[in-house]
């Protein structure tokens, strides 16, 4: 579904990604793990078209999107749940969700998506008229995920969904990610919580200072001594 080939990305004179290749197949959850500053967010922002590609290519469903602008990438079916949620604080929950459907004009379908999102996140329905700024961190994460679902994406890019959440909520968010995947959405998940990420992913890639240093089945990586030492706190 997603194919990244020999991708390099620079911020001015700083090279953030060096010749990385990774792929995500239809139906998978693929995890991208690595420490602070490794280039995980840059990878997602490059796929979304927010950060320009210096070298290499990105294709989605066989179509080259290397130079496609962000709004068109969204319209192709890639939704981004950004780091730090980035909900619109002065908009209500409903309005935030509506923003997620900006690429769609099938009113009936959008109405159905609202129903689906509220079914998945009953707490959002309870708070639908509340301003997003007044939600808790976990609720804002749910809103960011709900907003992405309103686009009816085939691929969801999730950046650190567990960041700053209490352990119980982390568990809940990961259960929801698994459920979203089981209902047919492919997921590329960036996480510092390698333990949780490897537990729900089928495959994973490890980034270190802009390079992919390891890749493989999530279960194999979870058993790899290097990964255990560097990312699983052993
Ligand atoms: P984190 O989990 O802290 O977000 P990350 O793995 O997502 O880390 P990136 O945010 O992608 O890493 O950063 C990769 C590298 O690019 C880092 O060295 C970072 O300092 C640098 N970088 C990121 N954004 C910019 C920017 N806008 N301008 C200059 N350098 C940047």
From TrEMBL:
Q: Which CDD domains match?
A: ABC_TM1139_LivF_branched
Give the keywords, sorted.
Answer: Amino-acid transport, ATP-binding, Nucleotide-binding, Transport
Q: Does the keyword Acetylation apply?
A: no
Where do the ABC transporter domain residues begin and end? 2-234
- One GO term (biological process): L-amino acid transport
Is this entry keyworded ATP-binding?
Answer: yes
For this protein, the record's InterPro entries field holds:
AAA+_ATPase, ABC_branched_ATPase_LivF/BraG, ABC_transporter-like_ATP-bd, ABC_transporter-like_CS, BCAA_Transport_ATP-bd_LivF, P-loop_NTPase
What GO terms are given for molecular function?
Answer: ATP binding; ATP hydrolysis activity; branched-chain amino acid transmembrane transporter activity
Task: Look up the domain of life of the source.
Answer: Bacteria
Which PANTHER family did the record assign? HIGH-AFFINITY BRANCHED-CHAIN AMINO ACID TRANSPORT ATP-BINDING PROTEIN LIVF (PTHR43820:SF4)
**Family of the protein in this entry:** Belongs to the ABC transporter superfamily.
Could you identify this protein by its name? Amino acid/amide ABC transporter ATP-binding protein 2 (HAAT family)
Can you name the source organism? Hydrogenispora ethanolica
């Amino acid at each position: 579904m997603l194919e990244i080939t020999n991708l390099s990305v620079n911020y001015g004179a700083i090279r953030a990604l060096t010749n990385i290749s990774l792929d995500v197949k239809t139906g998978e959850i693929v995890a991208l793990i690595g420490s602070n500053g490794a280039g995980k967010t840059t990878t997602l922002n490059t796929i979304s078209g927010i950060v320009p590609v210096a070298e290499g290519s990105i294709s989605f469903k066989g179509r080259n999107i290397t130079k496609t602008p962000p709004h068109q990438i969204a319209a192709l079916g890639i939704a981004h749940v950004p780091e730090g949620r980035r909900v619109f604080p002065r908009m209500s929950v409903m309005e935030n969700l509506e923003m997620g459907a900006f690429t769609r004009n099938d009113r009936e379908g959008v109405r159905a998506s609202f129903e689906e999102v509220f079914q998945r996140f009953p707490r959002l329905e309870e708070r639908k008229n509340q301003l997003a700024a007044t939600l808790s961190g976990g609720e804002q994460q749910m809103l960011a995920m709900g907003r992405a679902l309103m686009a009816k994406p085939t691929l969801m890019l999730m950046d650190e969904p567990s960041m700053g959440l209490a352990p119980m909520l982390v568990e809940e968010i990961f259960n929801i990610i698994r459920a979203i995947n089981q209902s047919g959405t492919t997921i590329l998940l960036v996480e510092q919580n390698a333990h949780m990420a490897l537990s729900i992913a089928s495959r994973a890639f490890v980034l270190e200072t802009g390079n992919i240093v390891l890749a493989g089945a999530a279960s194999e990586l979870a058993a790899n001594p290097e990964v255990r030492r560097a990312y699983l706190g052993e």
